[in-house]
Write a sequence for this structure.
């Protein structure tokens, strides 16, 4: 029996087990059925249908046990079906399922807001609002920034991903698949260069300061700082390819925002809740955002999202101006409280750092053997490799990526991809994954490169 990280509590054996080809016959049959029922626009990264999941394992309906390097896209940071999350949500569900906080409020919503105000960066007076999805949180952050400043423009960045609603499509950089054919998009959105160290023309060392100068110059010349309500950025870009901006970039942009009355919004929907080895990725460079959006890792898998920010900004919106029928659903709030407790009492911030060290160590060694690994990067348990054509040729290599990922999937490793050029393999294991499974998953990736 392989090791389970302390406190995982799952009854699922923490072992990879492959008993059929992947996907197995039952999954393939269900996939057939699905194609006649589910809209084709919804994809599935790896169509093995799930029976149960916990710790670092996803079990499918054919009896295979896969190693989870995806955590449902950085959602089940505390593990899938964490027993504390399940127990608290169940207890809540049995008392009441919904009243709508805007009709009859309840304590757990207030408690989650208190907790978010406590754990997010900065010790200033804060307020929070709860919503259903990351996109909805970003939409609300922009509404709040516009209302508080009386300005309209929003500045975003190359490679950004902020969601799939109309405004957040406009804020997102990549056309295919997120925006293609879905316009017209919301206006007053301005896109700026991103400090992308691996692809910065004058080299990674110059990237942060040079990119910041370009951004500040472009905002000044093309938009006018006095028109800008908000600068919105992921402190480490997620879907864009796990791009960690060059050092100095974020602090310079924040300083410019402060000097010009611009609301700085950190979109920590993917990076939040211990994922990057800090409770929030902003902490790494001591950034204190005016508003922060959270979702994915917030509630152990139940749908919940939030905007947290400076009281004077949050409270600038007129009464009744914010809300939504389901925002802050009581079961999701109960799950969030249990999940946060699991993160804090389980030492998952430290655990994310240890997971990251293991991954980066093995992947740097792998990169030394394979020229097509152009870059290995990441912070905490948010790690990626970017594939290129070869030594000195940084042309993206999505073909090699497809072969590596197909091999990993066939061997029972749930692995996700990302990147504007479709050439980034991203790793986001649940933070409670045991060391044995983590090592085994990395071995599967090494094998996949060896077979190329
Ligand atoms: C996933 C994501 C979103 C959108 O969240 P949904 O819950 O899918 O709407 C927004 N911003 C970032 C950074 C994300 O990773």
């Amino acid at each position: 029996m392989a090791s389970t990280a302390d406190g995982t509590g799952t009854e699922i054996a923490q072992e990879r087990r492959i008993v059929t080809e992947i996907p197995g016959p039952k999954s393939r049959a269900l996939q057939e059925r699905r194609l006649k029922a589910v809209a084709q626009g919804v994809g599935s990264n790896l169509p093995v249908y799930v029976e149960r999941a916990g710790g670092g394992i996803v079990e499918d309906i054919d009896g295979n046990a896969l190693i989870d390097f995806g955590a449902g896209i950085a959602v089940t940071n505390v593990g899938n079906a964490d027993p504390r999350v399940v127990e608290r949500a169940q207890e809540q569900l049995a008392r009441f399922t919904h009243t709508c906080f805007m009709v009859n409020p309840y304590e757990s919503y207030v408690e989650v807001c208190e907790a978010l105000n406590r754990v997010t960066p900065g010790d200033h007076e804060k307020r929070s609002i709860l919503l259903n999805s990351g996109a909805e949180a970003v939409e609300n952050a922009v509404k709040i920034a516009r209302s508080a400043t009386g300005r309209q423009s929003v500045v975003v960045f190359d490679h950004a991903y902020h969601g799939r609603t109309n405004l957040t499509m406009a804020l997102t950089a990549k056309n295919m698949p997120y925006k293609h054919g879905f316009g017209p998009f919301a206006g007053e959105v301005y896109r700026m260069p991103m400090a992308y160290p691996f692809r910065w023309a004058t080299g990674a060392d110059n990237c942060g300061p040079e990119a910041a100068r370009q951004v500040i110059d472009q905002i000044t010349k093309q938009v006018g700082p006095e028109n800008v309500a908000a600068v919105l950025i992921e402190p480490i870009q997620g879907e864009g390819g796990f791009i960690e901006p060059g050092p100095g970039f974020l602090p310079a942009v924040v300083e410019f925002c402060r000097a010009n009355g611009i609301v700085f919004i950190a979109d920590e929907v993917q990076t939040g809740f211990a994922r990057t080895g800090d409770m929030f990725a902003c902490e790494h460079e001591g950034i204190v955002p005016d508003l922060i959006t959270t979702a994915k890792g917030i509630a152990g898998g139940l749908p919940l999202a939030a905007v947290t920010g400076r009281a004077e900004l949050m409270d600038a919106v007129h009464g009744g101006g914010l809300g939504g029928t389901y925002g802050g659903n009581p079961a999701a709030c109960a799950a969030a409280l249990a999940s946060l407790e699991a993160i804090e009492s389980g030492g998952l911030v430290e655990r994310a750092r240890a997971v990251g060290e293991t991954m980066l160590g093995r992947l740097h060694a792998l990169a030394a053997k394979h020229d097509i690994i152009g870059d290995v990067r990441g912070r905490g348990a948010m790690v990626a490799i970017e594939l290129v054509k070869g030594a000195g040729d940084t042309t993206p290599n999505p073909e090699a990526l497809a072969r590596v990922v197909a091999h990993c999937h066939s061997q029972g490793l749930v692995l996700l991809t990302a990147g504007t050029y479709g050439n980034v393999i991203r790793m986001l294991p649940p933070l409670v994954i045991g060391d044995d499974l983590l090592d085994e998953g990395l071995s599967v990736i090494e094998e996949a490169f060896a077979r190329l």
About this structure: DSSP finds 13 helices and 16 strands in the chain. Residues 133-135, 138, 161-163, 234, 238-239, 267, 269-270, 295-296 surround pyridoxal-5'-phosphate (CB under 6 Å). The domain at 85-345 is CATH 3.40.640.10 (Aspartate Aminotransferase; domain 2). Confidence is low (pLDDT under 50) at residues 1-5.
